[in-house]
Design goal:
- It is a single chain.
- By secondary structure, the protein is mainly β.
- It folds into 2 domains: about 35 residues, no CATH class; about 100 residues, Jelly Rolls (Sandwich), CATH 2.60.120.10.
- A hairpin with a 2-residue loop joins strand 5 and strand 6.
- The chain is globular and about 40 Å long.
């Protein structure tokens, strides 16, 4: 078996376990060698279970990606709202966090301070700490990534 095939199998096994990996590069002779230990984590959201997290708008539709990745500087959620579902209306006055939403599937609305803003895949919406916000799914549901962090 070639070294590259062994490395591909090793990476696949590590990905399944959620373990950190090492980057390899082809040398002049075409063989692979370790360059650097690179700590990274890959998770597949399709394999994650949705559940309520610590977020003020926690819902049963949240997949807490940051927890699985081991990230602590900010929170990352993938939220998959079924048709007609909505998140909890909330502000971040207590925890002083801004939200950014990246819409990836479906259509719906972000309600910011009672203004209904239509959203679709490819759009990003940032909401300031003091604004009340809520996300509502349209007839086909709505999936989005929520990034939450305090302002710098």
């Amino acid at each position: 078996m070639l070294a590259v095939e062994v490395e591909d199998q090793r990476r696949a096994a590590l990905d399944d376990l959620g373990a950190p990996s090492t980057r390899f590069s082809a040398g002049d002779s075409g063989s692979y060698r370790s360059l650097t230990r690179v700590a990274y984590q890959i998770v597949d959201s399709a394999r994650m279970t949705a559940e309520r997290g610590p977020h003020p708008a926690a819902s049963p539709f949240d997949k807490r990606v940051s927890q699985k990745l081991g990230v602590s500087a900010f929170e990352v959620y993938q939220v998959e709202l079924p048709p007609g579902a909505e998140t909890v209306r909330h502000t971040h006055l207590a925890d002083q966090v801004e939200d950014v939403y990246a819409f990836i599937r479906g259509e719906g609305w972000v309600v910011v301070d009672d203004e209904h803003v239509p959203v679709r895949p490819g759009q990003f919406v940032a909401v300031t700490v003091e604004s009340a916000r809520q996300v509502r799914a349209g007839d086909d549901g709505l999936a989005f990534i929520a990034l939450c962090a305090p302002p710098r």
